[in-house]
Design goal:
Helix content is about 25%, strand content about 20%. The chain is α/β, with parallel strands linked by helices. The chain has a single domain, classed as Vaccinia Virus protein VP39 (Rossmann fold). It has a nine-stranded mixed β-sheet with strand order 1-4-3-2-5-6-9-7-8, sandwiched between helices. It binds S-adenosylmethionine.
């Protein structure tokens, strides 16, 4: 299963239509911190099948301490490699985008909190959103902008966007990185318009998740870079549901996991993509979805 940005030896041809992202009718806000770069065509440099990143190379990565944002700078060349250190983020982005319906109106805005290098972008093509990404890491934002994302530097605990500006807010693989979960959830719900859709995915605060997402995943190329997670920040599911409810969004959770068949195919060198499928439990990786109250 080849993902939309995967292929053989040429630049990705996925169009990113300015009109689809709002174009001149929906210019980016002019507040400080906005870095607007939009392109007519996705500039994803496609790569052919490449081996999973060798263990020796992974072990050479500097030890910056757990959950240190500088790790994303050190791994900037890995973001868009389908078999690189962030391979699993590509699979999760596809699963997240599957929860996002077509834009409800022309010029609809999707705010992508902790957008990283914009891996969600190819999966939103044709849905009709202007894709606004917020992140702390400049190197990741530059890559996101190259992929058609309106890139905004900011902390998800203090998002530099106005109240109710978003038709959809995605918070994918970010909540398990923030020291102040109530602030991040509060901000996600604040920028969401009444009736808008919140989509999250993150890692549960359980012993099983610590085993799977840290002990095991950090030894599996493509699952999680070494030291990227601080398990102390993993997300208590009941707390998350309560925080969303307190901010006017009732969310439902479901567990997800990589398709075992696709993983076997990947390891056998057949295909680069892995589908995320429903899991019987939310106790490792989970998605949440809900709408903000209209009044
Ligand atoms: C695991 S990556 C997920 C990226 C993207 N959502 C994806 O799924 O591909 C986490 C991202 O969150 C960003 N990040 C971490 N803490 C942040 C914060 N407090 N505010 C904004 N971005 C943050 C990092 O720079 C990184 O790009």
């Amino acid at each position: 299963m080849a993902g939309p940005h995967e292929g053989q030896g040429s630049r990705c041809a996925h169009p990113i239509s300015l009109a689809a992202f709002g174009g001149a009718d929906h210019p980016a806000p002019r507040s400080s911190g906005w870095a607007v770069v939009q392109r007519n065509r996705c500039r994803c440099a496609s790569v052919g099948p490449v081996p999973l990143r060798p263990k020796a190379e992974r072990d050479r990565s500097p030890d910056l301490g757990r959950n240190n944002p500088e790790q994303y700078d050190a791994l900037a060349d890995q973001w868009w490699l389908p078999r690189g250190e962030f391979a699993m983020l590509h699979w999760l982005a596809a699963a997240r985008a599957a929860l996002v319906p077509a834009a409800p109106r022309p010029g609809a805005v999707l705010v992508d909190l902790g957008c990283g290098a914009g891996l969600l972008a190819p999966h939103l093509v044709g849905k009709g959103y202007r894709h606004v990404g917020v992140d702390l890491t400049r190197s990741a934002l530059a890559l996101a902008a190259d992929h058609g994302v309106t890139a905004v530097r900011g902390d998800v605990g203090r998002v530099p966007l106005v109240d109710g500006c978003a038709d959809v807010v995605c918070a994918g693989e970010i909540l398990e990185h923030v020291p102040d979960l109530p602030a991040a959830v509060g901000e996600a719900c604040r920028v969401l318009r009444p009736g808008g859709l919140l989509v999250v995915d993150t890692i549960a605060d359980t012993r099983l998740a610590r085993l799977v997402a840290v002990t095991i995943a950090e030894r599996v190329p493509g699952a999680a870079p070494k030291g990227i997670h601080d398990p102390a920040l993993f997300v208590d599911r009941a707390h998350l549901v309560r925080l969303c409810a307190d901010n006017g969004v009732g969310i439902a959770l479901r567990g997800i996991r990589p398709s075992a068949l696709d993983v076997v195919r990947l390891l056998a060198g057949r295909g680069d993509g892995v589908r995320m499928v429903p899991a019987p439990t939310t106790s490792v990786l989970f998605q949440g979805i809900g709408r903000k109250r209209s009044t």
